[in-house]
Design goal:
Length: 214
């Protein structure tokens, strides 16, 4: 982890040598991190789209075998194999993002220059406990709801996915409230970048389109 943190600090130092702005250095680091994890974002988006596409068939199996859980599991696994769906891959991005976020937090908190730096009048080395946490939560909500990894499946996947969204909002609020403003700027920038990433992800068939095509 220390190698990753030191690498992030080196990236910020380089960007600062070009821009003379620590705020832009954080934004540049954020965009680089998003670029690195973009392949995983696309992978998860495609997996989520496939899950949404076979959702009607999954629901049909759940009704048909509601009294036989073992048979239901077998049929659903066969459905996943048939459509080449790996449900675990839909969680891959979260598994990757949180260690990355923690590494970024360590880098931002450890960088000595950020402790006294400012950006747009905001002290980067101190928590900003009003505006930035609200903006971080708002952009997180938009990024999650509009994310291609959700693929419009929030309503389809129901309470389980909604619980994940609420948990993410709570975590982002805590990080923004607890840590230096530099962390909030990273979160906000990452969320905005995520909104643009949805245009880079191929749009698959929706569940309705898949049903009509059969």
């Amino acid at each position: 982890m220390s190698y990753i943190v030191n690498g992030m600090i080196a990236v910020m130092d380089y960007i600062h040598s070009v821009t003379s702005s620590w705020g832009l250095s954080i934004i540049g680091l954020t965009l680089l991190v998003r670029l690195v994890i973009l392949p995983f974002t696309i992978m998860q988006a495609r997996s989520s789209q496939k899950l949404a596409l076979i959702q009607p068939e999954t629901q049909r199996l759940q009704k048909k075998y509601k009294d036989d859980p073992e048979r239901l599991n077998m049929e659903i696994m066969e459905l996943y194999r048939k459509h080449k769906v790996n449900p675990a891959s839909s969680c891959l991005l979260l598994v990757i993002q949180f260690p990355v976020l923690w590494a970024v937090i360590r880098a931002l908190e450890a960088h000595p220059a950020l402790k006294s730096a400012t950006f747009l009048g905001i002290a980067l080395g101190q928590p900003e406990k009003v505006f930035l946490p609200v903006l971080a939560v708002a952009t997180t909500y938009l990024a999650v709801r509009l994310s291609p990894t959700m693929g419009g499946g929030v309503q389809q996947q129901g309470q389980g996915q909604n619980a994940v969204i609420v948990a993410m909002l709570g975590i982002m609020w805590y990080f923004s409230f607890r840590f230096a403003a530099a962390v909030s700027i990273y979160i906000i920038t990452a969320n905005i970048a995520g909104l643009f990433e949805r245009f880079l992800v191929p749009r698959g068939e929706t569940a309705g389109e898949g049903a009509r095509s059969k």
